[in-house]
């Protein structure tokens, strides 16, 4: 899914991510090449990951989330406190399937956004 996530899709993914534990941690050095590589490997393997920003990291949490998403080819699902969720759907054999009602609502939202 290379299109921008619509709100109904983000809500669905946020519900799926609720029980996940963070697999990537951003430390005081902010986003390093190692963090980017870890996030890229994790999101390519899992599609949906949770990232934790450690308290000693200075930086805007939304900007950090967007920067990491841009560098990994993922999309930001949500930012809550010092935790954010990234999503990158696989081209083939995706483990995450959107329910029909979510797809219909997203299609309607996309159509309205174009008007």
Structural features, described:
The chain has helices at 7-17, 33-46, 61-72, 100-114; strands at 24-26, 48-53, 75-80, 83-87. The protein is an alpha+beta fold. It has a single domain, classed as YhbY-like (Translation Initiation Factor IF3). Strands 1-2-4-3 form a four-stranded mixed sheet, sandwiched between helices. Helix 1 packs antiparallel against helix 4 (100-114). The longest helix is centred in the last third of the chain and has 15 residues, at 100-114. The protein is globular, with a radius of gyration of 14 Å. The protein starts with 6 loop residues before the first helix and ends with a helix.
CATH architecture: 2-Layer Sandwich
Q: Hey, roughly how much beta strand do the residues contain?
A: 15-25%
From the alpha-carbon coordinates, what is the Rg to the nearest angstrom? Answer: 14 Å
Structural class: alpha+beta
Largest sheet: 4 strands, mixed
N to C succession of SSEs: HEHEHEEH
Helix content: 40-55%
Shape: globular
How many separate domains?
Answer: 1
Distance between the termini: 22 Å
